[in-house]
Amino acid sequence: MSLFRPTQLSLLTAFALSSPLLAEKIDFNQKVKPILEAACVHCHGTDKDKGDFKIHTLEDATKGNDNGPGITKGDPSKSAIYTTLILPADDELAMPPEKEGLLDPSQIAIIKQWIEEGAEWPAGVELKQTSRISFEKHIQPILEQNCVSCHNPEKDKGDWILSSKKQAFETGENAPNIVAFDATKSALFTSTNLPEDDDDLMPPVKSGGPLKKDEIAMLKAWIEQGAVWPDNITLKAKEKAAAVTNSPDTLELTKKIHAFIVATSKEKEPGDMKAYDSKIPKTGAAYSMLPIPAGTATIGSPDGEADRQPDEGPQIQVAIKPFWVGKYEVTWDEYEPFMLTNEGRNKDGSRKTWAPTDKPEDLISQPTPPYQPMDFGMGRTGFPAICMTQHAANKFCQWLSAQTGHFYRLPTEAEWEYAARAGTKTAYYFGDDASQLQDHAWFFDNAENFQYSTVGKKKANPWGLHDVYGNVCEWTLDQYIKDRNATWASKAANGIISNDWVRSTTPYPHVAKGGHYDDDPEALRSSARRASDASWKQQDPQLPKSIWYLTDATWLGFRIVRPLEIPTVEEMHAAWNNGVARE
Description:
By secondary structure, the chain is of the alpha+beta class.
């Protein structure tokens, strides 16, 4: 009667006929030793001789026990070290026991061939216990949380698909990426064991790499033990647990910045407000601010306005306090030094290495490295910055505030529309005739090369603001609510609403205004509203997706405001930490 179970026998036969591992003589140190040390020595070694059987030396392994020899050179059927591997799983003599996990047919075939070839065991080699690596327990989580999001049938970076065993072993520009028993020839291991600044590091720093040392060690051990991957397991990308970062970017940091702003800002009354040009202290990048007077803003569109959308009504009256607003959209000259730093950063943007004595602007969370140049080849110097999440724009405002001693933030939706209209009540600040847009905005009909343009080339609105329509769409601070106007109108006192903003309660949507270079005229109207959506970062392969980049919103930027009235610490902190879009 055969000791093989039918399924086990068929698997071993199939493996023997197909595996390149068996086409050459088995190297004990490379292929047999790792299997025995991981799966057997813990019960049959120097400290424990279960069944009076030790295998840590050739002498003991050959001797076996009262039931017979452990190794009979040339004859696996008379070698307990092999025959116990092929017993039924429920047999009490089966090795390793089922509760510890049976060996894979590929590993059993290695042991069988080694014995058939004479069971060569180099003199002086003594086996030592090592940790046995389980694919399901140890390797699958590493691959699903760090690799599969970029290496799957929909996104096969490097032409490598990691979703199934066959694809993982056979696909890829550098195939084979996994060579059983040889980590040095397996790109899955060698690419994870590179310096952080190496372009070939996997996963790259911008995707959350490098792996932890223990994860790299497990990949190496798994490959050296035969790279066992059960045929029935298919991998799917999964979210990686957020690392504990002990981020210094807290309310206490905001308190320090708030105190600096209170001590620095000199303007107290509307009459003190003047237009000013300034430079970012850390970089020297220039920006310009224009004063906007207090007033009552008519927000939304009238029923008869052409192309009016339901979410633009009813019209409401909002009391606006005085503020400064950026003359231009924030450019790459201003934003890029904030986005690209040489500091090692956690996914939340906090520095991996920092001290409480660091300057506040250096402790603020900043973006992790992007996947590619985020201007997508459209230009940088003098061009508007794009593709940032609302959270990223908010943190830029905090970073700028900490350096200048002025409180900067995104405009509320009401402030944006008030500034864009500049006292007008028509669809556009120049009237209702969309044919005049050519002189005031870059949009679908005139955008050069179907992309954004350098800021300030078109006519300004009556309050001196350039590109409020077109070029790039602009973030506001508010969460998008379809019936916001109706909700606010029901709470109005004397028909006038105090300016406020809708705090975030969900990752999406948030409000963007002004339209962009690829929009039709109706999307550029002062009252038009755009709601952010998860599709704006569809190309982002990370799980969770980045809180810093909207890889598909190559038409989205922002401009900044500075209210005359300095808010409380809590209000300031809320504005700078709104919009963290965790998928």
